[in-house]
Amino acid sequence: MLGFGERLLLSLALIAAHAVATVFEGPTDILNNIYDIIVVGGGAGGAVMASRLSEDPGTRVLLIEAGSGDFLNLNISIPARAESLVRSAFDWNFTTTPQEGLNNRQILYPRGFVLGGSTAINIMAYCRGTVDDYDRWARVTGDEGWSWKSLSPYILKVDRMTAPVDHHNTSGQFDPTLHDDGLVPISVEGFPLGTDSRVIETTQDLPDQFPFNLDYNSGDTIGFGWIQSTIQHGRRVSAATSYLAVALDRTNLDVVVNTRVTKVFPVGREQGKPVFRGVQMAQAAEGPFYTLTASKEVILSAGSTNTPHILLLSGIGDSQYLSTLGIETIVDLPSVGQSLHDHPFLANTWTVNSNNTVDDLNRNATLAAEALSLWQANGSGPYSLGGSTQFGWLRIPEAETFFQGLGVDDPNAGPTSAHFEHIPTNGFISTTEALPAEGHFFAISVGVVSPTARGNISLHSADPFDAPLINPALLGNAVDLAIMREGVKAARAFVKAPAWSDYLISEFGDFANATTDAALDAYIRNNADTFDHPVGSVAMGKDGSAALTPDLKVRGTVGLRVVDASAFPFIPSGHTQGPTYILAERAAHLVRADLGIWDGLLGG
């Protein structure tokens, strides 16, 4: 009988063999093929669409990915190496415009540039979102099919709870009744941190402010609980290793990598509207440029930065703006590229009296080599660790009064959704400072879960190989800054619990000097960053000003649909890969319904 390591290596070898057989390195091999559906982008949205639509053997599907097919790369597979993927060959290497809310700093904006998209480079947290998130989507789109209740069958089609790599007893760490047999394996973390018990003790010491939540994927996130991550057997799970892996041996699915879609184009008109079933693509700015036409639909799943970029280059956007770049307007749709928003991030650090933190692993080559050997043997050890082991999702007390004082309504989706997020980590975390050469640390990262500021995606030029201009408007108004301030104050309150009395020494760096609201605001603006959760830049809605109809079709067009996080009308109260999978599951059903393919799911 094969052992665990042998079985795992065999399964990965089978996936790799499938990839060699069906993943093309460029477009020349598929130019003479005929496809019903062309999907642009191999991340969470595109992988679901390619996988689900190719389940019907009569539907020919092409998936085009701009990045490489190296989704089993060692640095991608090792959860703890996620940070090494920023500014790597697997990152689009984007940078934002100067962010006014961050004292005009430009920040790195990682996006996945490999099959699997950003699911191949993220920190692997799996969050479904909340009842109130999706019910708000239903209200603003006028489509009850986006409500939590209606989405339930699609939610259950995504994730599958699996045992953590250390096979510890997971009783009390999640609710197994909430999970089904989906295509994305997830698990609670399989490498314990020394602070785990202290975090859980804090929920007992201060239950009113920091309650325990058995399973935040119930639809109600509020409280602290154990993180569920897209990790199986200690290895990263991406859209490529899950949704695409089960589809790569289908004869009706082709995948081409290292190929950038430069625009979509009309091939005719129906009912007075342009029919956008044509795709232009290239591998280099100097060409050559190739074209393909789908017989049924083109689906843009290039993400919240690249989907609006492609649409604008294609002449779908604000006509006055496009004219300034010499781009002919085909569909005047001013909302394309607008309403980009994201979760602002800030790490807050304390020194500790422990010698057992992840800091040593990050500064000691010998320990790192030992961790790598252990991971290669059976997937276990510190390299199996994702971002952290627990989450906290919290609301501002007396929120109505708080936001009235700011002169705005509560921007939150409802009582199951948080205003801010806490991620405790037993080690140093910062996006503005390097790990100190000495010392041991504890950090609580704070995120603004319900941001109100809105930015945009625009063009640097009409050259499709020029990166887009990305403005997520991080902390772009007083409301978002105030939420972050309350989140940092709550982090300070969290560590006042008795559970931390013998562990923390002092606040570290600029954090320690932020003792007034004014100083705290300055500290936040100087050190905040992004959780890398851009959404909303091609949002769906019920009125004619929205870029997408509620069934994700680009307004004013025929044959063109968007299926990725750019379609979200509001950012979910959680990390965005889960909601993207969920949105795509329903989108696949909508497309199949339009194609007359019955898939057995109710709810429209």
Automatic annotation (TrEMBL):
Gene3D superfamilies: FAD/NAD(P)-binding domain, Glucose Oxidase, domain 3. Residues 1-21 form the signal peptide. GO terms for molecular function: flavin adenine dinucleotide binding; oxidoreductase activity, acting on CH-OH group of donors. Residues 303-317 form the Glucose-methanol-choline oxidoreductase N-terminal domain. Its cofactor is FAD. This is Glucose-methanol-choline oxidoreductase N-terminal domain-containing protein. The active site is at H533, H575. SUPFAM superfamilies: FAD-linked reductases, C-terminal domain, FAD/NAD(P)-binding domain. Keywords: FAD, Flavoprotein, Signal.
